[in-house]
Each structure stands twice: as structure tokens, then as C-alpha cells.
TrEMBL record:
GO terms under biological process: endosome organization; receptor-mediated endocytosis; regulation of early endosome to late endosome transport
Domain of life: Eukaryota
Protein name from the UniProt record: DnaJ homolog subfamily C member 13
GO cellular component: endosome membrane
Database matches in PROSITE patterns: DNAJ_2
Domain J: 478-534
SMART domains found in the cross-reference section: DnaJ
InterPro entries: ARM-type_fold, DnaJ_domain, GRV2/DNAJC13, GYF_2, J_dom_sf
Amino acid sequence: MCIDGYYLRILLESSSQDLGIRSPLTFFNNLYHRFLLTQRLDMKCQCLQAMSIVYNQYSEVIGLFPDIRYIIVMLSRTQDKLERDRLLIFLDKLLSYKENIKIFLDENGISVLVDLVTLAHLHVTRARHVIQSNVLEAAAGANNALEDQEKEWYYGTSEQSKGPVSFGQMKQLWAAGELNPKTKVWAHGMEGWKSLHQVTQLKWTLVAKNSGGVMNETELSSLILSMLIKITRCYPTRDEDGAVIWPLPKVKRCLSQATVLPHLVQLLLTFDPGLVELVATLLCEIVVDNALARKLYLTGVFFFILMYTGSNVLPIARFLQLTHTAQAFMSDTLTSSDLMKRSILGPLLPEAMLYYLENHGADKFAQIFLGEFDTPEAIWSGDMRRHLIGKIAAHLADFTPRLAGNNRAVYQFCGIPAVRYPQLESEMFVNVFYLRHLCDATRFPDWPISHPVQLLKEVLEAWTSEVERKPPEMTADDAYQSLGLTRGSHHEENVVRKAYYKIASQYHPDKNPGGRDIFVRANKAYDFLCSRTCWENNEPNPNNIVLVLRTQSILFHRYSEELSGYKYAGYRQLIATIRAETSDENETLFSSAGSLLGAAVELAYHTVQCSALNAQELNNEGGFQCLHVAFTRCLSVLTHSLSGSEMPVQVCSYVAKCYTVAAQFTGCRVTFCSMSPSLLSDLAYTLRSCLASSSSSSSSSSSHGLLRLAADTVQCVSGLAIDET
């Protein structure tokens, strides 16, 4: 075919970057006229291909293409795969010119593209990602089985319909001649009954002609997503001065519609690396300065995106950073962490991961998410990621198979039970630190703490919360009963979810105004079973309190200069802890849980060592008398067999050092005088016991520890013997 002296075959085969067309506008118009006039499909496709090449190179010369509406109509009506692909590629080139984009949006072109993009779910021969878990995707041969599992299709008329049948059965009915292009059909996710040839999935699997397309379904969807990204970027939401443009650009309003956005989001469930990256990039463009994005979580996007197992997670991390605290959602309201409350990811990710996302940005989060980390600021591993994926996959098990048989199905949001990570069962997270690791001086000596004052404040709050823990108002059995499940036994998540769905659908106030109370109780019960409160131990944990005390000791020891200007606010709780540990009723003083007393007394010493204000405050709270009781109780068990690292020796040593420091202050010395002669008698007894035990001890470590206690005792006596005259 020759047009204006140019042979199309040679033009299409040319690899030259410069076509050398003398009059691009005239040549393009003649190509378009030939395209309109010819009835031969192969010639139409050649013209479309040539127009794509010419417009791509000469778009500024050719300018506005006024017939975009006609191209969109042809794209929606064609039943030939080759023509469809050529039209789509041509449309992609046209949308590189901004004036064409405006016409495209006015003609509702986005809905046509979104209809086509859902075909990605039908690409059953897609190559599997090398690290994808079999939890997420079955083998390629299992897709036909999935088609037959979900029966969602009806055919006939709305008054006299047949079904439901599966997608596989629809194919059989078509092959048997029971269906034709004009048969009315309906499935979940469709707005109403349509002729079969108007339903994108059925048109391209049943009606479409056999001519091969240029692209498979994944390539087709990738092109469409790239087009949508290009269109979105043409209309920024801020002007040159950074002010928000109002109203929101039309393209973002279109892409945010409930009939569009869920289908874009659900492409994440293809798990194709290219598609996932494009979807994440497009979503980042959509959500910027978009108030409609506050309900994005209802599409299930945060579940779908965290199920992805590939390594190209940076676009995902950027999307999460933009959106995780911007949702109209409050997760796990009983948690003490403000970030965990505000973040939609609170039930899914450990708190440390959220802080990395919030404080260090997408790049660092992606690095952590892909790696293996075990530090005071991050505990994450491949096993934890697989655990997360498995939990989400189980939660979505009722929905994901549906897309293979009905790619217009729409996910109905349901909260997920908070994910429990076995690796974090013994961890306590405060501020931005796992306290067990922070207190591990062997593995993490001198781990940097950027904001010691803030950490101290939050540790004190965590201490109070730990001590004041109370059982929740509702128990798991109460929640099960509200959902119609048996009390006294554990029920799997899918059972709980189905029970909740059943009650919610039956008693929702919109359907059953008289069932409001039952609906509210079911909601409350399901929220409770999804929260961390349901499975957490709601009694004070001594191990957590030890970590809190040791963290404070680290802060006062290493950051005394920064903290010296502040009066310690935790003495009442500290003294209460020491009294509880040294009371006559406490029989666990010298058991394995006895480290609590040692940590408490050590903290008392470090606070006094840090600031004179603290010495005076401890004195005012009666702390020195309390320490004397602890000293006396530990003194009674000092023997030559004790090493310097054992709790009784440490308690006596820290009490002695605390007294030594406090003796510098007049008010404290007055208190010590009032404690005589029992205090001096105990110090003298300590000195005699240490010297006698160390001389008879066969262990060098025991001898060294007792001698160190003796030295601390001598210093204490010297400090108390200051002559004020």
C-alpha cells in the first residue's frame, strides 16, 4: 500500500529514528482517511501502525487529533485482538499530546481502558516470579479448576435467569450454542445486565476472532497502566508556587471512582512484577493531594500490596509512605502507640517497621523489608515476611479465586486479625527501640540514642502502662458468643469472619432497622477478636518491667549530661517496685524473677549519680529508707559462694554506691543520720562478711565480686563520715 509516495510496508519495517517525511500533517491525514475508508482488517491495522509511528515522531507538528472519540468507540466495539492492540497503541501515542488528553477524558476513555486492564487476570500462562510462594499462586494448570470453583455468572434475562454457573461452564455453554453474543448476562461486580459481547471478559474469551494480537493480556495491561500514569502526570495537583489546585484534576477524580479504582488495585493480585510496580506507581500519582484517597483502604490495597513477594518493592514502599497514616481508619484503638492507631498497617506490620517507614523513608523501609535484620531498631526477616503473606492469603482466601472466573469481582473490605509474629513474642518496643536488644550490652554496646530525653519520657509512660494493665472488658468467649460461635474453644479466622459476615448481612441497619443492637455487638466482637488485645497477656509482665528499668539505667549512665537538668519523675513507681520486691509477702526475691530488684536498685543509683535534683527527690520520697530495707534483705544471704554478678551482691553494691553519692548533700546526710545506728551496723557487717567470705572462697569470680562490694562499702562509710564543720 502506497500513500503520498510512501510504501507502508517499508515505513513499518524502517528502524530509522528520522522518517524523513516531507509533510507529516498531510501524510498523517491521508493515512487516517485510508484507515476510515478501507474495509480490510489487515489494511486498517497497517494504517493504525503507521499512524502510531508518524504521530510518535511528529506529534508537535500534527498537533490535536479531533477524532479521539471515534478511536475510543472503535476500541470499545472491536472484536478483533489485532485491531484492539493497534488501536490501543495508537491511542497511547495520541495521549503524548496534552490537548488530546482533554478530549480523551471528556469522552470517558478511562472506563474503556479500565475494562481492558482487568484482562490481566486471565493471563494464565504468565511466567511465575522465581520467589513467589505457593501460598499465593497455584501452578498454571490449576487455573481451570479455579474457574469452576466460583459460580457467579447468570444468563438469560433479569426476569428469567439461569445460573449461577462458573466461567468454565460459560465457555461450555458457548461451545454448545446455548449462548450467543446478544445473550444477556450478569455477574457480581457488574452494574446491570448486559449483552454478552458487551462484557469485556466474555467478549475477548468467547466472541473475539482468532487473529493473534500484538500483546498478551499482561503486556496489554502494562501499556494501559503506563498510559494512565502518563495522563495523571499531565495534570499536577499543585501549581508552581506549591499551592494545591482546586478542584482536583478530572483524571484523578475519574481514577478515584468506586467503579474504577478497585479494578486497578486488584491488578496487584496478578503478582506480576511489572504490573505490581506500575500499579504502585499509578496509585502514588492518584493519592497525592486527593481527599478521596482517605477511603482507599476499602479496596483491600494494603492487603494485596503486602502479599507481593517480589524484590522490586521500592514503589510499594513509596505508596505505603504516602498513604498508611492518611486513611479514614483507626486500628487497634487499645494500643498505647499513636502511630499504631493512625496507621492502616498497624494490624499487619510490627511497630518498628512503621517507624522506619515514617522516620527513615521509603528507601530504608524497602531495604529492611527485603532483608534480615536483628537490631535494637529493627527485627525483620524473610520468615516474618512469609508469615505475613500467609496470614493475608488466608484472610483473602474467599476472594482471590474469584478473579480467575470473574475479573470484575470487587473485594468487600473486612478487617484482618492483628498478625502475631513469634519472633517478637518476648520483645517490648518503646519509642523506636526493642528494649531487649537495646539492653544487650554484649551484642549492641553503645547503640546510639538520638533523643534520650524523649526515650526516657516514653519509657516512663510504658512502665506506667505495664503496671496498670487490666483485663479487657470483653473476653474471647464473650466475642464468640456475640457472633453465634461456641464458647470455650478457639475458632479459626475464616470461621469467625464468616460468622461476622452472616450477622452483618442479616442485621445491618440499612436492611433490618430492628437489628441495630445485634449488628453493633457483632461489630464490637469482631473488632475485639481482630485486635492485639484479644491475645495479649493483660497482666503486668515482670520481664518487661526489668527491660524498662535497665533502659533507664542506660540512659542515665550514658546521657547524664543531657538528663542532668531534669528531675526524675519515676521515683514513686521505682520505690513501689522495690517495696513490692522486698516485702515479707514476696517469696520470689531470690528466684529467677529476682532480677527486677537488682534492676530497680541499679536505676536508683544511676539517677542519683546523674543529678543532685534526683538525690533530693529520692530523699523526699523516702527512697533511702526503702533502699536500706533491700540492702538488709540481701545482706542476710551474702555467702562466699555468691559471684559478683548475682543479685544480692549487686543490690548491696548499688545501694552502697547510691548512699556514697547522696552523702554529698546535706538533706540526704540528715536522713542517713536518722537511719543510724542500724545503717552503720549493716555496713560494718557487710564489710566483715565480704572480707571473711572472700578469704575462704575458692572461686576467683566470687572473691572478686565480694571484694568489689567491700570496696563500695568502704567508700560509702567514707562518704557518710564527712565532717560538716
